[in-house]
Amino acid sequence: xxxxxxxxxxxxxxxxxxxxxxxxxxxxxxxxxxxxxxxxxxxxxxxxxxxxxxxxxxxxxxxxxxxxxxxxxxxxxxxxxxxxxxxxxxxxxxxxxxx
Length: 99
Fold this sequence. Notes:
The protein has 99 residues and is of the alpha/beta class. The protein has helices at residues 30-39, 55-64, 84-94, and strands at residues 12-15, 21-22, 25-26, 44-48, 81-83. The longest helix has 11 residues, at 84-94.
């Protein structure tokens, strides 16, 4: 009996806290690893469930640490960073309670 081949990985969802950084410091090699994923054309999204920091604040901090974050406008649907605060903001917009 042969083993089933592993499914092809189509994209990665990467948690920021504990993976790309611990506290406010990038984990060793994380900046380079993210750069290699981008260079290889592997699609990815970054996520954080922290409720203490806005998406923009997190993006600014990651960028200041050397990460190449390309977080385009929400209307284009190409955000690379998803946060719990951003999810609430999007939900309120969809409900018509936030402009």
